[in-house]
Amino acid sequence: MGIKEWVIPQDKVFFDLFDRMAQTVVSAADLLVELVENFDNVKEQCHRMKQIEHQGDEISHEIYEQLNRTFITPLEPEEISRLASALDDILDYIDGTTQQMYNYGIPETDDSMIELAKLIQLSVIEIEKAVTGIRTIKNPELIEERCIEVNRLENVADNVLGHAIMDLFKTEDAITIIKLKDIYESLEMATDKCEDVANVLSDIAIRHS
Question: Which residues form the signal peptide (predicted)?
Fold first, then answer.
């Protein structure tokens, strides 16, 4: 057994938990796309989203509990904490946006919301693949490629947001402007949080490769 294998515990519980967390984030993004594409049974869909968000909270709590009782961890404790927090932030913004849609009582979604939701979905798919890659980090370049793609998608989301707000301010209904602007910005913020996760993953890949 090499020195690295001796020092780093063979128990991969943290990687298992991160895989579960990433899968939960993907489930939330999938539900978000389903909601904005078929805007019906909104209350029920929001309830489903809240359940997914609670699952994420439970996994995050388990990660921190494990961190508190593990002496030697496969990643730096700060890296584990940052990654758990960043993944949870994506979930919070996805859930928060669906709650906004319901609470604001918007009658329908629009092309900008659908496009932003799909960008979130594409981003978290890349994140899930990158999270799987940190288990062994045999090929850090592949992890970095995933992270670069997430950054690109976030830039696309910035442009979508800009055009959506420009179009929005061509209308004259102030209440509608406020509601939709909040929703657009929350969706775009979720892509920012995806970028935060990508940055954490990129740092991990570089440091441990």
Answer: none
3-state secondary structure of 70: coil
Which residue in this structure is represented by tokens 């979604």? 109
What angle in degrees, to the nearest 10, is found between the helix axes of 140-168 and 174-208?
Answer: 170
Q: By the 8 A CB rule, do 139 and 148 touch?
A: no
User: What amino acid is encoded at 72 in this protein?
Assistant: I
Q: Are 34 and 45 spatial neighbours (Cβ–Cβ below 8 Å)? A: yes
Count helices and strands (H / E) in the chain: 7, 0
> pLDDT tens across 117-136, in order?
999 999 999 999 999 999 88
Number of Cβ within 10 Å of residue 187's Cβ equals: 28
Residues 168 and 183 sit within 8 Å (Cβ to Cβ): no
Residue 63 CA to residue 187 CA, distance in Å, equals 26
- Written as six digits, the tokens of 67 are 């961190």
Closest by CA to 168, choosing from 151, 180, 158, is 180
Cβ–Cβ contacts within 10 Å for residue 1, how many? 6
* 18-43: pLDDT as tens digits: 999 999 999 999 999 999 999 999 99
- For the entire predicted model, the pTM comes to 0.93
Torsion of CA 200, 202, 203, 209, to 10 degrees: 140
Question: And the tokens for 77?
Answer: 């404790």
Beta strands (DSSP E) in the chain are none
Q: What angle do CA 59, 155, 115 make, to 5 degrees?
A: 75
